[in-house]
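Protein 1 of 2
SEQ + STRUCT:
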Amino acid sequence: MRKLKDLSLNEKLMISFVIILLLGIAVKWNGVKEGFFKGWSKYSEQTDK
């Protein structure tokens, strides 16, 4: 595995954006979870035939 100093600028930026994204999801977890279940419920509803 390469060390951080051996990575290119684009690779370092991508890693930092992923970390920021994960931190944002962790901070707003309740809203993310509710939105996910609200969106998923449209596809998981069972209809009576």
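Protein 2 of 2
SEQ + STRUCT:
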Amino acid sequence: MRENTGGPIHFLSRREKWQQKKETDFFSLIEQAGLYAERSTSFREKMRALYLFRELTGYQRTKGTDPGSLPERIFHTWYLCDYVTVKNERIIERFMKEKRRRDDWEFLSRLIVSYSSVFRVVEDAGNLSLHEWAGETLPFPVGDRVWNKDDLKAEYCIARPVKVGVKTLPLGPVIPLREKTAQKMTTWLEQQLETVHIPFRIFMQQKGLGIYRFLFQSYKEEC
């Protein structure tokens, strides 16, 4: 039997180090998979994906499009995690298989069940948390690392939460919304969901990108 020395067990510090490693590994995986997606898929596949993305969101890429623009970042995440290729597989799945990333299958499973949705921003005692309008995702806290201080006054946002370790983190940017735009999105979603008979997650991954139509339209109106 191991002798009890009576010293403190630094469980919280160990868990925090473990959590930090999980997050580092996760975002490193996303970065590597993103580079893989750019380099390994054919021009025809990318054009097919862009066509479907345009049909869902109304977004039209042009020659002068900034690769780092918000619509392009949204497309990139969708293309990597949700778009189903002509071979009936996600890009992220193909990456994991070809690179034999067996230790990262937990991350893959979390990514596959994640989706973008509309959230309400709730402040309590100076702490912020995101509450999904549909209630499918449990509320989760957000910090300055994923939420720009200049946007703290926004009451709604779009986010894509993913469980990493013991925490829920947004994948990609948390996009602040005007209340009017958020209401248009949720009204549209409610109308669409009345006509389909598939799980909410599947709908959001396949058709839910339609919420971005209202976001992109609001940008046009402000210009």
